[in-house]
Amino acid sequence: MTDSTFKPTQASGFRQGLTSYGDQGFSLFLRKAFIKGAGYSDEALDKPVIGIANTASAYNPCHGNAPQLIEALERGILLAGGLPMTFPTISLHESFAAPTSMYLRNLMAMDTEEMLRAQPMDAVVLMGGCDKTVPAQLMGAASAGLPAIQLITGSMLTGSHRGERVGACTDCRRYWARYRAGDVDEAEKDEVNDRLVASVGTCSVMGTASTMACIAEALGMTVPGGASPPAVTADRMRIAELTGSQAVQLARSGLGIERILTADAFENALRVLLAIGGSTNGLVHLAAMAGRVGLALDLDAFDRMGRDTPVLIDLKPSGQHYMEDFHHAGGMPALLRELRPLLKLDALTVTGKTLGENLDAAPAPFAQTVIRTVSNPIYPQGGIAVLRGNLAPQGAIIKQSAADPRLMEHEGRAVVFENSADLAARIDDPDLDVHPHDILVLKNIGPKGAPGMPEAGYLPIPQKLARAGVKDMVRISDGRMSGTAFGTVILHVTPEAAIGGPLAYVQTGDRIRLSVSKRSLEWLVSAEELAQRQKAHPITSPSAARGYRQLFLQSVNQADQGADFDFLRAEHSQGKTPR
Ligand code: FES
Asked: I want to staple 521 with a disulfide (CB 3.0 to 4.6 A). Which of 17, 308, 381, 387 is the partner?
């Protein structure tokens, strides 16, 4: 019996993308011989082939439910008349990748793109969750161009420490800060370490993983409701089954990813990033993903969007709750319904329907306290604001929803650290000349500087100030910050110090003025003084003798372009987003 609606052709299923032996007939003959060695029949080989990009890894507990997800995906694919073909790709976990997972995101995107190109498949399910995996997969799939659908692994459950609900990793940072300040002793520090991560799955707050899950759904790349079910729940497995069957529909319809990842889809994703109080990393990843389809991310237009997009999700680090609460409150369909007047409803999704049509079919709203209304937001503007000024000519950002309101308009003396090693060596020195109103500046943690733009922009409060009760200070760097972190932290200063951006020339004692209301970051040093410092200390951009590091340092672009490799961006411009 053959599939009634899928007609295998030379350009589909196992017949496509044949290995080059100089004889196409022999290539197919050989391919079928090998796969039959694994027990496959001709009937199975005539089905639509659905690749499953498997990112399971013992080094990645955020994907620890991968075996169950794959079982559910395969069930969905088989029920819909497809043939699942699971294959491995690179997997990245935040805490197991040195120097930083961001250094490897582009490598994972290249791996994903080339495996999608090289292997025969009619559609692909991208299974990812931990911070860099979803953007890497979507970047690779956008460049490969075949029908694709994202399956999120899902968030971890929350734990309980001495009666208090805890979850990674906002509470990891909070407890570590308390330990550094002397409020928590060694024994309690070790005790809470057992409680912070209660199951496999991604971080339980609105960190980068949760942000990218919501963004994937806002882009139209997941089935409706695909962002929020926790990793170890029946809901997550049903989403996986549905994703599998939807992948077969994508294969049959031939709905390519280029028809989903449009300027409108990115605008919806940027709107959601603002409304969820999402991770600042989301902006870098969206810039990189947009670049793969020829769209330039317009930071100023994004900032204007932020002025009329309130934060509606009451999740840590901007609010109080966790991802499982967001799921119980209705997840993304409930949020998107609230944002409906601000969205591009005609954007196409992996269901084959528009976002508006999906919302029409979404479950009815009900009373809950996690997803606020526009008239009763958590924060009146979007979570992220874009700053400009002579310290960041190409922009910098601040997560204003997670910052101390008292520091949003602030002028202070710079206390400068040249790089991460300098910071580590001096930040806790009792003799460090630092005061609560100073501004901590860290250089050389940008895309080329570290390299890989690590999440080191969340500089710790100097220990002597932390012990005196200081909880927040203005901090500035060209690096990134974990989405689970909070504080008045200015990030992504562009151009970075390592390529000679103005940040490279800031010295301890200089004065810096921050005005979030004016969106400005001013370094109170004259142009003449800057020119003198540039002449006295010329900067040489970092390089490497061989390997991936050489490729990285030669090719990585700046944060405003997503820190992607220049040769991986689309060849032709499709304009800007948001418009
Ligand atoms: Fe994987 Fe936080 S470490 S999502």
From this structure: 387
Cβ(61) to ligand 1 under 6 A?
A: no
Q: Determine the pLDDT at residue 5.
A: 61
Q: Is 62 in the pocket of ligand 1 (CB under 6 A)?
A: yes
Within 8 A by CB and 6+ apart from 81, the residues are: 3, 5, 6, 47, 48, 248
What pLDDT is stored for residue 2 in this prediction? 41
Residue range 202-249, pLDDT digits in tens = 999 999 999 999 999 999 999 999 999 999 999 999 999 999 999 999
* 159 contacts 167 by C-beta, under 8 angstroms: yes
Q: Is the CB of 74 under 6 A from ligand 1?
A: no
Q: What b/e string do you get for 187-213 counting C-beta neighbours within 10 Å, with b at 16 or more? A: eeeeebeebbbbbbbbbbbbbbbbbbb
Tokens matching residue 54: 């498997």
How many other β-carbons are positioned within 10 Å of the β-carbon of residue 361?
Answer: 10
Backbone phi and psi for residue 32, each to the nearest 5 degrees, phi listed first? -65, -35
- In angstroms, what is the span from residue 202 Cα to ligand 1's centroid? 5
CA of residue 135 to ligand 1 center, whole Å: 13
Is residue 342 within 8 A of residue 308, CB to CB? The reply is yes
